[in-house]
Amino acid sequence: MKAAWKFLMAMGLFAATLVFAQGNLEVNTPAIAALKASMADRHAQLAPLYASGAVGLKSDGSLAVHDANAVPLAQRSKLNTLVAAENSDRAALYREIAAANGHPEWADDIRRTFAQRWIDKAPSGWWVQDQRGWARK
Amino acid sequence: MPWRPVWLRRVGLCLALLLWGSGAGAALQLDIGRIVSGGATARGVTLTIDQARGQIRIAHLDVVGQRFNNLHLECPRLSLADGRIRCRDGRLRGLPALADARLDLDYATASQTGELDIRFAAGGRLVLRSGKALGAQFTRLPVADLARFWAPAGAWQPTGTLSGQARLDAGNLEIKATLDAGGFADASGNHAAEAVVAELRLTADTRKTGWRWRAEARWEAGGLFWDPVFVSPVVTIRAEGQHEGPHLDVEELRIEAPGVPDFRAHGRVDLDAWRLVEGDLSLQGADLAVVVPQFVLPWVAPAQTERWRVAGGADLSLAWRDGALQAAELILDQAGFAYLGQRFRVGPLSGRVPWRRDAPEAGLLRVDGLHWQQLDFSPFVLNLTVDRDRVLFDQARLPVLDGALIVDGLALARTDAGWRGEGALFMEPVSMRALTAALDLPEMAGTLSAAMPGLVVTPQRVGLEGALVIALFDGYVQATGVEVIDPFGLLPRLQANVTAEHLDLAQLTETFSFGAISGFLDVELAHLQMAAWRPVRFEATVRSTPGDYPRRISQRAVEHITALGGAGAAAAIQRSFLRFFNDFGYREIGLSCRLVRGVCQMEGLDGPGPDDAPFAIVRGGGIPALNVIGYNRRVDWEEFIARVKRAVAGDTAPVIK
Amino acid sequence: MKRVSTATAMVALSLVMAGCVTINIYFPAAAAEKAADRIIDEVWQLKPGAEAKEGESAK
User: What is the chain B residue with the closest CA to A39?
Assistant: First the structure.
């Protein structure tokens, strides 16, 4: 009986570590770090564009040009490439997090989670998209 | 706007009719009813004169498909005398575009010549003269006002002013105009122009059928953004051709623009379907450094526009027949491409890539330089065949270091999921001495060769079926299942299964200055995943090669191995009696490491065990025998690598025997 | 008495383990949200100490 107890206690501890492991998603891989660095770099260029309304946050976890008129004509081509590059990094980020946790099929769930959090955390004044369309926070 | 002079002529006719119906005198009203002239119809025309004041009313006016209702020209001073009709400071009601404008009219009935002077509130002025020829002179005419005559233009918010003159004489039309501060914008801002200064010149000739035209434009200042491309001056355009029915024939079109010194085209456009029916287009001496980032990358790879650097020149020719692209040819002249700084660089690259819709074409590319990571390839030639949507490369030999990479039967094809390449890759042996020198690694003896019959390249992955073999340290290392994920992305990742057999430990430890161990090792590195050349995940097993050979391990090597367990352990050996021995015998070495999430889970010779159970890494044998026991089965990989580096770097003093 | 408590403990523990298995199968929404918050803070530089904090919590 005592032995059974010990075994169960050991299993219980093991289970507890599993629960702990579930408390965090693995996000510390070189790929995720590289994507984060690339996005943080780009954010210096994107921040004024969010603030001016040129760029807005979409409900699918990506960015979109919201009002190109807010940017001088000569910069609009650059605006598009910034948005495209950021979206490519974001898509890769969602994919990478899913892959790093051994569940590539989670990519869409992660994208949805991020979409909501980008919008929730956006400072007021930025443009965000919901079911009804564009709105200013 | 070729319709404007036509419209003017019709106004002239109306006025003449009005005059005939009237006589000089006091209060007078004339109901003219309907005037039809060519495409213009005026219904319900009434002329009223009371003293000096006068009014002309038109109930409906149809001109070139547009209807104007309740037009009403009010003249404070209207005079009918000396065969002339004169209206001073007239106001036209019912036409918003001219609501604020003041009109002066002077028409001589005998000669049927007249002048209409329109002064816009915004400062623009339009003077129309009708006689034998119709003429117009305009000064700072607001484009926005002109655009009001054409409803679809309103959505584009045109701005700017036009100055110049127009003349229509016996079917000959000539327009010269200067656009100043011109621009337009759609609501989204994705199509817009600003501060445009341009000169335009258009001459046209109505032949028996259709128009013969010639246009010249010189765009001198401002900018145009047409999603996703931004264009800036100086651009000159010259074109001439014919317009008949639904067809616009461009006999010659020449464009000069920054980066595009010589663009020529001719062809036929179906204006109803708005499509190019047939034509030829040629671009000579294009500057790729300008053209590629401006016109090509925003279309084909907007996300990577910032990552590419391009140089060199190119010629391009395209041929359209029956509404479809029939043939194309691209000639590259000393072109160079660099990706992500200097990670990948190719060039100078020269040659010719042709394409035909209905037949294969042979092309050739001469690559005078190729650089990848730290490897430089010598010049080589690529012979290729473009077969519709496939490109087939003949066997190519890419010399690198003292060997060569041979790409055999590579075929690129467009599929629904993007392009895909398949072929085979072989390698003429490259000496490890040259390779390690090129890669800044410790010098190693041996050779690298590869036979990979199944090469698959897509934008998402590069897969290699077959084996990469390195003859090294008297044994060999073999990599199979080699795959590069996201090869063109920010962080390409490498996957492979690696096995090594019979590696001579003596050479290995000498190369990495790790003391001296004699014997042989077998290594298995399964499910290896690397990112930025650093391992992220693997299952590694290192075991002594079975067999009969001397097995000795030097004290220095033992120190290094123990130092991996942390500082202090090595010192313990130094203090003990073991320091009297130069080397020790061993029977077996065995260590496994399963790397997941930055942690290496270790096992010794006896396989798995609880985390706190010691495990044997080196089992002693002979005299004196020495066991190396590990105590920590979970090791932080970064920390482990740092310790290996410290151990190797610390080995400055040679082992004294 | 002792027997009864042992049985209870066994049931309770197997419940804990069953719980773990469930978490494994479904998408861990709360964990994903936490990970998203950390990454967004870093990318948008919302909190100056985001990097250091992440190092701690990852441990």
Answer: B490
